TrEMBL record:
<keyword id="KW-0456">Lyase</keyword>
<dbReference type="GO" id="GO:0051536">
    <property type="term" value="F:iron-sulfur cluster binding"/>
</dbReference>
<dbReference type="GO" id="GO:0046872">
    <property type="term" value="F:metal ion binding"/>
</dbReference>
<dbReference type="Pfam" id="PF04055">
    <property type="entry name" value="Radical_SAM"/>
</dbReference>
<dbReference type="InterPro" id="IPR006638">
    <property type="entry name" value="Elp3/MiaA/NifB-like_rSAM"/>
</dbReference>
<protein>
    <submittedName>
        <fullName>DNA repair photolyase</fullName>
    </submittedName>
</protein>
<feature type="compositionally biased region" description="Low complexity">
    <location>
        <begin position="324"/>
        <end position="334"/>
    </location>
</feature>
<feature type="region of interest" description="Disordered">
    <location>
        <begin position="314"/>
        <end position="334"/>
    </location>
</feature>
<dbReference type="InterPro" id="IPR058240">
    <property type="entry name" value="rSAM_sf"/>
</dbReference>
<dbReference type="GO" id="GO:0016829">
    <property type="term" value="F:lyase activity"/>
</dbReference>
<dbReference type="InterPro" id="IPR040086">
    <property type="entry name" value="MJ0683-like"/>
</dbReference>
<feature type="domain" description="Radical SAM core">
    <location>
        <begin position="55"/>
        <end position="296"/>
    </location>
</feature>
<keyword id="KW-0411">Iron-sulfur</keyword>
<keyword id="KW-0479">Metal-binding</keyword>
<dbReference type="InterPro" id="IPR007197">
    <property type="entry name" value="rSAM"/>
</dbReference>
<keyword id="KW-0408">Iron</keyword>
Length: 351
């Protein structure tokens, strides 16, 4: 990288407060093509993040090329991570994007170490690797190539239709290692989708991406996560959503009810009060007990959606033991059915 020889041991003039003290900060960038967004380029010291051993997640490591996300989803669980940098979890999270410009090079070095065990690696577990920034920085091709060439299985979850740019690369990688792909598509009402996820591609565009993945011979799951109480949990909305996912070629559907961590709750309820004020009292009651919707609501939702999932033939692909995701069709066919519902304590890491 052109930044490698630059001294980065002092506070950087013009940097935001939380970034000024980072000794790997390079520069901040604003461009007309990304109005309202500032990219803060840093040199990553590591690429692989180890998942704690006690976690029930089906993968051992994650990679997050970006921090912050221009998708601007009001419900995004990852918002509190920006507070570590003295940035707020609201507008700053949506518009102050940290970019690990050397992440692919660092990853290659980590994968080349003798002790690397080719553990499954997940992308999209925190912020989206195919958010708009990826169109400028093109970090994912290098990451995908490094993982495939090292024999490391990978899974990928995204709302970003920029995924289609890399489908040939992903199809090639799937001939070398297990590659599991899923699109996060939770909302099938266009007005609601643009209100609560204003920076995301449309539902129609994401469904087209599902079809494009399938046309490359790969399975593609759909994550209907989160389901928003009193907004997207009607039988009509769920049935229509599953119908559209099936028509697009989805291999399976996973779902989970909305979770609201304390910091996220603040921003989500601000959105709710602005756009759906009549629902605010019901949400305050529903989430009075904390982060998760009550067990009674989750049981009610399960009783409503699971028969619909079965009726549309979306009960599941097969679990790839190497990645924990739905198995790609180009791989062997053995494996157990994936669960239809993500446990609430795991769901915040997956959308």
């Amino acid at each position: 990288m052109r930044w490698t020889g630059q001294e980065l041991t002092t506070e950087q003039a013009g940097a935001l407060p939380g970034l000024a003290k980072l000794n790997n900060f390079v520069r901040s960038v604003q461009t007309p093509e990304f109005a309202g967004i500032t990219f803060h380029e840093i040199l990553a010291k590591s690429a692989l993040n180890r998942v704690p051993g006690q976690s029930a997640l089906p993968f051992g490591y994650t990679i997050n090329p970006y921090r912050g996300c221009s998708h601007a989803c009001a419900y995004c669980f990852a918002r509190p991570t920006h507070e570590y940098l003295n940035l707020d979890a609201g507008k700053d999270f949506d518009s102050e994007i940290i970019v690990k410009v050397n992440v692919a090079e660092v990853l290659r070095k980590e994968l080349a170490k003798p002790g690397w065990g080719k553990h499954p690696v997940a992308l999209g577990t925190n912020t989206d690797p195919y958010q708009r920034a990826e169109g400028r920085y093109r970090l994912m091709p290098g990451i995908i190539a490094a993982l495939a060439e090292s024999g490391t299985p990978l899974s990928l979850l995204t709302k970003g239709t920029l995924l289609r740019r890399d489908l040939d690369l992903l199809a090639e990688a799937s001939r070398r290692v297990p590659v599991d792909i899923a699109l996060s598509i939770a909302i099938y009402d266009d007005n609601l989708q643009q209100s609560v996820e204003p920076g995301t591609p449309s539902t129609k565009a994401r469904l087209a991406a599902v079809t494009a993945v399938r046309e490359r011979g790969l399975d593609c799951g759909v994550f209907m996560m989160p389901i928003l109480p009193f907004l997207t949990d009607t039988r009509a909305h769920l049935d229509d959503a599953l119908r559209q996912a099936k028509a697009a070629g989805a291999s399976s559907v996973l779902y989970c009810a909305l979770n609201l961590k304390p910091t996220v709750k603040q921003w989500y309820l601000q959105w709710l009060e602005r756009d759906h004020p009549q629902l605010l009292p019901r949400y305050l009651e529903l989430f009075a007990g904390g982060t998760y919707a009550p067990k009674e609501y989750r049981a009610w939702l399960a009783a409503r959606i699971k028969p619909l999932i079965r009726a549309h033939g979306l009960e599941g692909g097969r679990t790839d033991p190497s990645t924990g995701g739905p198995r790609s069709s180009g791989l062997a066919s053995s494996g157990s059915l994936i669960a239809q519902e993500i446990p609430p304590e795991l769901a915040p890491t997956l959308f």
